[in-house]
Amino acid sequence: MTKQTSHDKGDMTVREAGEKGGQARKEELGPEGYSKLGKQGGEARKQELGPEGYSDLGKQGGHRVRELVEKGKASEGEE
């Protein structure tokens, strides 16, 4: 991996800086804060898509889960 550095900022990559910031945010918010943040994001997405679009999005996820369950059952039968 190529390091993206600045001459006076040290030897931290962009990825490392992101991880460091993510860890700091995780410690700052805690589990309850992350839950609240997720709910806010879900509500924003619902407003963006509207009730019908949000429902369609959920159905897409359900189809994917069904496919994975069927694939798992099929592989168990092959043993």
Helix content: over 70%
Biggest sheet character? none
Structure annotation, total helices = 1
Tally of DSSP β-strands: 0
Low-confidence stretches: none
This entry's quaternary arrangement is: single chain
Outline: extended
Radius of gyration: 21 Å
SS-based structural class?
mainly alpha
- Head-to-tail CA distance between termini: 40 Å
Q: Helices and strands, in N-to-C order?
A: H
Mean pLDDT: 85
Fraction of residues in β-strands: under 5%
Provide keyphrases for this structure.
mainly alpha, extended, 79 residues
Helices and strands in order, then pairings?
Layout lengths: L13 H64 L2
Care to describe what's here?
The chain has 79 residues and is mostly helical. The protein has one helix at residues 14-77. The protein is extended. The model has no long low-confidence stretch (mean pLDDT 85).
In brief:
By secondary structure, the protein is mostly helical. Helices cover 81% and strands 0% of the residues.
